[in-house]
């Protein structure tokens, strides 16, 4: 899981550096990518053990 977080940070940083007219803050891009990842386990049904 540590590598997933590191990859998320790298991808978000690359997106913010794309050539465009406005600069995107890194925290907004990270939250747009990471929020669905956090919400997904909460909304999925519980698995029986």
What does this structure look like?
- There is one protein chain.
- The longest helix has 18 residues, at 26-43.
- Helix 1 (2-16) packs across helix 2 (26-43).
- The chain is built from two helices and no strands.
- 67% of the residues lie in helices and 0% in strands.
- By secondary structure, the protein is mainly α.
- It has helices spanning 2-16, 26-43.
Q: Which tags fit this structure?
A:
2 helices, mainly alpha, 67% helix, 49 residues
User: CA-to-CA gap between the ends?
Assistant: 22 Å
Q: Tell me the helix content.
A: 55-70%
Q: Uncertain spans, ≥5 residues at pLDDT below 50?
A: none
Average pLDDT: 81
> Which structural class is indicated by helix and strand composition?
mainly alpha
Overall geometric form: elongated
Write the layout of secondary structure elements.
Blueprint: H1 2-16, H2 26-43
